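Customer ticket, subject: "Can you confirm the structure for MarR family transcriptional regulator?"

Message body: Hello, I'm evaluating your service for our small team and ran a test protein. I'd like someone to confirm that this is what the system normally returns, since I don't have a reference to compare against.
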Amino acid sequence: MTARLEPILATSPTRLMVVSYLSGCDRAEFQAVQEYCGLTAPHMSKQATVLADLGYVEIHKGYAGKRPRTWLSLTAAGRTALQGHLSALQEIATNAAAAAAERSG
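Agent reply: Thanks for trying us out. I re-ran your input and got the following:
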């Protein structure tokens, strides 16, 4: 196996869901990511902070009109980590399918 699972994503389906969601857009409002992942605000905040501390996510604070808002965006490092993780998962699945075919063939 040449690809490597990203430990921070492999050990938390929630973090994997957050970075996967963010990979599909330039940035997303905190609440949209929270709702997509089915998290409470405090849990979403904790996960965003963990990912930001790793340099995988940037947290942007500002206002939409007079209302405070928080946006999240996936960094280049976050995209690289996600792609590597997905490649490792694909490699695992491919190797498992080949091994199963070999055993039954």
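A couple of notes from the result: The chain has a mean pLDDT of 95. The first helix runs from residue 7 to 10. Feel free to reply with more questions.
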